[in-house]
Amino acid sequence: MPKLAKATKRQRDLGAIQGIRKHFVAMKHIDIDNVRYDAESLAAKYEEHLRAMARVEDLAADHAEAMAQERKLEAKLAKIHAGVKSIAESMMGKHGVGMREFGITPDRKPRMSAATKKRANEKRQETRKRLGISGKRRRRKNKGAS
């Protein structure tokens, strides 16, 4: 079943209600899909759908308004929270366990010192040289040179 736009559904429902009330009133009963309706109960089904669509539109507008309000508050609160975090870090240390009492997971301590990282990088570069591993730019450059 294809999705229909709200305007299309509204137009369809209003047209059906108008047509039912104009042409089906004289009919004693209308059987649709093994269910018996009279003209008013059939029109009532369309009206019920129109009321449901109107409620959805109202709730969507309320939801959009609430989301905009929350975004504004979040933007203001982010600055405040950064300040709270900064003060808590100065009191308990950046990696302090007490940070959890503020709902802040403490920053992890670095596992490697800068000297260890430097030595690891040197070893990696030596290995690349020894094995002849290079990046795609260097490979392209070497390919063009030969």
Layout of strands and helices, then pairs:
Blueprint: H1 6-24, E1 30-32, E2 35-37, H2 39-92, H3 114-131, H4 136-145
Helix pairs in contact: 1-2
Please describe what this structure looks like.
- By secondary structure, the chain is mainly α.
- It folds into 3 domains: 56 residues; 39 residues, no CATH class; 37 residues, no CATH class.
- 69% of the residues lie in helices and 4% in strands.
- The chain has a two-stranded antiparallel ribbon with strand order 1-2.
- α1 packs antiparallel against α2.
- The two termini are 62 Å apart.
- 2% of the residues are buried.
- The mean pLDDT is 89.
Q: Quickly give the structural class.
A: mainly alpha
Largest sheet: 2 strands, antiparallel
Count the beta strands. Answer: 2
**What is the helix content?**
55-70%
Intertermini distance: 62 Å
CA-based shape? elongated
Strand content: under 5%
Helix-strand sequence: HEEHHH
pLDDT averaged residue by residue: 89
List the total number of helices.
Answer: 4
**Which residues sit in consecutive blocks of at least 5 with pLDDT less than 50?**
none
Rg (C-alpha, Å): 35 Å
Tally of individual domains? 3
Order of the strands making up the biggest sheet: 1-2
